[in-house]
TrEMBL record:
<dbReference type="Pfam" id="PF00465">
    <property type="entry name" value="Fe-ADH"/>
</dbReference>
<dbReference type="GO" id="GO:0004022">
    <property type="term" value="F:alcohol dehydrogenase (NAD+) activity"/>
</dbReference>
<dbReference type="Pfam" id="PF25137">
    <property type="entry name" value="ADH_Fe_C"/>
</dbReference>
<feature type="domain" description="Fe-containing alcohol dehydrogenase-like C-terminal">
    <location>
        <begin position="194"/>
        <end position="390"/>
    </location>
</feature>
<dbReference type="InterPro" id="IPR001670">
    <property type="entry name" value="ADH_Fe/GldA"/>
</dbReference>
<feature type="domain" description="Alcohol dehydrogenase iron-type/glycerol dehydrogenase GldA">
    <location>
        <begin position="10"/>
        <end position="183"/>
    </location>
</feature>
<dbReference type="InterPro" id="IPR056798">
    <property type="entry name" value="ADH_Fe_C"/>
</dbReference>
<keyword id="KW-0560">Oxidoreductase</keyword>
<dbReference type="GO" id="GO:0046872">
    <property type="term" value="F:metal ion binding"/>
</dbReference>
<dbReference type="InterPro" id="IPR039697">
    <property type="entry name" value="Alcohol_dehydrogenase_Fe"/>
</dbReference>
<protein>
    <submittedName>
        <fullName>Iron-containing alcohol dehydrogenase</fullName>
    </submittedName>
</protein>
Length: 391
């Protein structure tokens, strides 16, 4: 076990049911906020929109809305949002929404204060990898879903449709200053998306456990998160009003945001980003589910991290687990319990003859995550995982 770690997360986290009610009493990082949302329907249905405006007014903050974030956010939207923030004199961002909104906040915060194009600052693919010339706008996050953990870290994933790239973008100075995680706001998320988002959170933690960079702290947090997600996600899917289940899954998701500050995820995320870069209508969590069992099998067959698989299987409700294959069994059972075991790549237009193109794209755009794999994976082997997972 690696006993070394480097952890610095400056985000203040207000976690728990009713946490949004505390926003107005917090010290805000500015006086005029860009209120960043998707279409805003989910925020209104959950009551989060009205409550957030009320709390911002209580804090003496003026807000202007930019509600154009879409699933799998794109570069053009980021640039439009950044221009809107500048034109309206916004001095910080309040991101109210799910993973797409939280991811977009990081990129918009950077481009609101820096010249040029977002891809000038992206590392990987056709990005130019330039350092930020100026600090981004401060960010306050209010998450409406339990999935990405982006409410507490400095990363966002943005798509470039022109180049067919979906790449993680972030700098430590873009880490949110305040995060509100209020499970009461998540009760209206539909069952299907509750499952997709919950598995995204699960895989953040399982990939940390599999990663070559796992350490004593990231493992401890990840196992706690995995246990809570595995036990309570089926309940949250079955009954969205089950507040205890929502709280436990939200805990697992936010903890993933912390484990990913301590330890990188693996190529499973690179591979899914390639899938949704080519097929933009594919929900991120759904894509991860589709390849998850084949991805785990690759390392199980090579005995790359047997002990980690056994620990995860035990955390997922198999206390007698004693072989790495038990993790795959536990994962399959959880997917069955959440109604997502029958997802098919072909339903989203993915073709089996794309497997090598997807593998190459995954390495070219987010090759750094391949370095975290517990053993090497060639392009041919990566394509083989796609092929094994294909239905």
């Amino acid at each position: 076990m690696n006993l070394k770690f480097d952890f610095n997360n400056p985000t203040r986290i207000l976690f728990g049911s009713g946490a949004l009610n505390e926003l107005g009493s917090q010290r805000m990082p500015g006086k005029k906020a860009l209120l960043l949302m998707s279409g805003g329907k989910s925020a209104r249905v959950s009551g989060a929109y009205a409550r957030t405006l009320e709390q911002l007014a209580r804090a003496g903050v003026e807000a202007v809305e930019f509600a154009k974030v879409m699933e799998n956010p794109i570069k053009e939207m980021v640039m439009e949002g950044a221009a809107f923030a500048r034109e309206n004199g916004c001095d910080f961002i309040v991101a109210l929404g799910g993973g797409a909104v939280l991811d977009s906040a990081v990129a918009i915060a950077a481009m609101a204060t820096n010249p040029g194009d977002l891809w000038d600052y992206v590392n990987g693919g056709t990005g130019k990898g330039q350092p930020l010339a100026h600090p981004g706008l401060p960010i306050v996050t209010i998450t409406l879903t339990a999935g990405t953990g982006s409410e507490v870290n400095c990363w966002g994933v943005i798509s470039n449709l022109e180049t067919r790239e979906k790449i993680g973008f972030g700098y430590p100075e873009l880490t949110p200053v305040l995060a509100i995680v209020d499970p009461e706001l998540m009760k209206t998320v539909p069952a299907q998306y509750t499952a997709y988002q919950g598995f995204d959170a699960l895989f953040h933690n399982t990939e940390v456990m599999m990663s070559s960079g796992v350490n004593i702290l990231s493992e401890t947090i990840a196992l706690s998160a995995i246990e809570n997600i595995a036990k309570y996600l089926p309940r949250a899917v079955q009954d969205g009003n089950d507040l205890e289940a929502r709280e436990r899954v939200a805990y697992g998701s936010t903890m993933a945001g912390i484990t990913m500050q301590l330890t990188s995820t693996t190529a499973q995320h690179s591979m899914e980003h390639a899938m949704s870069a080519y097929h933009h209508n594919l929900p991120h969590g759904a894509g991860l589910i589709m390849i998850s069992q084949a991805f785990a099998e690759f390392f199980i067959e090579r005995h790359a991290c047997d002990g980690q698989f056994i620990k995860m299987a035990r955390a997922m409700g198999m206390p007698e687990a004693d072989k790495p294959e038990d993790f795959r069994t536990a994962l399959a059972q959880l997917q069955e319990a959440c109604g997502v075991a029958d997802l098919k790549m072909s339903d989203y237009g993915i073709r089996k003859d794309e497997c090598m193109a997807l593998a190459i794209n995954a390495r070219e755009t987010m090759g750094g995550l391949f370095l975290a794999n517990p053993c090497p994976m060639s392009d041919e082997e990566c394509a083989g995982i796609f092929a094994r997972a294909y239905r």
